[in-house]
Amino acid sequence: MQNAIMQVKDIEIPDNKILIDVDINQIILDNGKVVTDPVGELSSSFTVNAQVILAEKEYIRKLSNIFKKAGIEIDGIIPITLAERNLVLDKNELNDNIMLLDVGAENTDMGIFDGNVFKYTDTIPLGRRQYNKRYSTCFKYYRRRSRKIKKAVWFSFKIFYR
Length: 162
Prior knowledge:
Largest sheet: 3 strands, antiparallel
Radius of gyration: 21 Å
């Protein structure tokens, strides 16, 4: 199994990217049986269906330096949407087609899953603070007033989509 994962490193990776993870979806044995864990299975060969997860090399370098300066040793990096998926979804939802949105103060993280398959992730530089800035700029409100407007709009959406 480790051999199969190591072969992934033979793929062509752009100079500005680095391999941070290989997310295994399924393993197909030579008899056609599909498994998620091959331990205890007998097979002369197998095929691994997985996603190769790349990140910006410079960003990872900076992140690693921050942890190093803080005296924290990190073993690896997991994309936030993969980590959140296992935290926020219950067992019944893990096999559904899901899009996770995490709207933060500065950025919105998005992850799309087709059942167990991790399809797409991205970070959009748009968060709650940008809404406050736009409300205050467009409508000439003070920031405090624009925060109240934003909360009222989000609350209305919640009620409408129940």
